[in-house]
Amino acid sequence: MNLVCELPMGISENEAKLFLAIKLYEINKIYLGKAAKLAGYSKSAFIEVLGQYKIPIFNYSAEELREEIITQLSKADN
């Protein structure tokens, strides 16, 4: 699928792709790897960009995070 749009002055095509990828990732429409690819970045570089914009890479609720910690701790004990 192709999208054609006129960008505001001062916004490059690469910036537009990056901003689109960030927003789609932020609202959980695409996963990290897909967002990085859309933006033209490696996963690690995209994670750094997310950090610059204060966007978390983990979207756990408090309960999900608690369960994940318990799971990982129980695996470490085995």
What do you see in this structure?
- This protein is mostly helical.
- The chain has 4 helices and no strands.
- The protein has one domain.
- The chain is elongated, with a radius of gyration of 16 Å.
Beta-strand residue fraction: under 5%
Structural class based on helices, strands and sheet pairing: mainly alpha
User: From N to C, what is the helix and strand string?
Assistant: HHHH
**Total helix count?**
4
| Assembly annotation | single chain
Helical fraction: 55-70%
Spans of at least 5 consecutive residues whose pLDDT stays below 50 are none
Mean pLDDT: 91
Kindly state the number of beta strands: 0
What does the main sheet amount to? none
Overall 3D shape: elongated
Number of domains: 1
Radius of gyration: 16 Å
End-to-end separation? 48 Å
Summary tags:
0% strand; 78 residues; mainly alpha
Topology (SSEs and partners):
Layout: H1 13-26, H2 32-39, H3 43-52, H4 62-77
Give a short overview:
The chain is an all-alpha fold and 78 residues long. It has helices at residues 13-26, 32-39, 43-52, 62-77.
